[in-house]
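Q: Convert this sequence to structure tokens.
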Amino acid sequence: FYKALIQLRTTLQAFQVTKLGLTCSQLSPNVLGIKREHHQQLAFLVMNFNPQEVTLQFPLTGHWQKRLDSAETQWLGKGSTVPFEIKETFNATLQPHNLIVFQQTLP
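A:
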């Protein structure tokens, strides 16, 4: 999982910045949302630090693609309820200690 996360850091321009273009917000208790922007490329990370599942509304508008989800079975997770493509705000359940990376895509 960490190798895939490091690879995303080198391939997504939005991760190749410092504190500029960085916005953090608390989406729920112990759930952090981080938006990264660089050269018109957007990435959004959601981190659930809770030891239990959390259901929340994702604050994404536009077209987004899930790039990495620690709850997927390939990472020995229980499986994800978060869709691969997102075109509007939606509700989903985050697994305990879950990290999800989204990248904004063109419609």
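Helices lie at 2-11.
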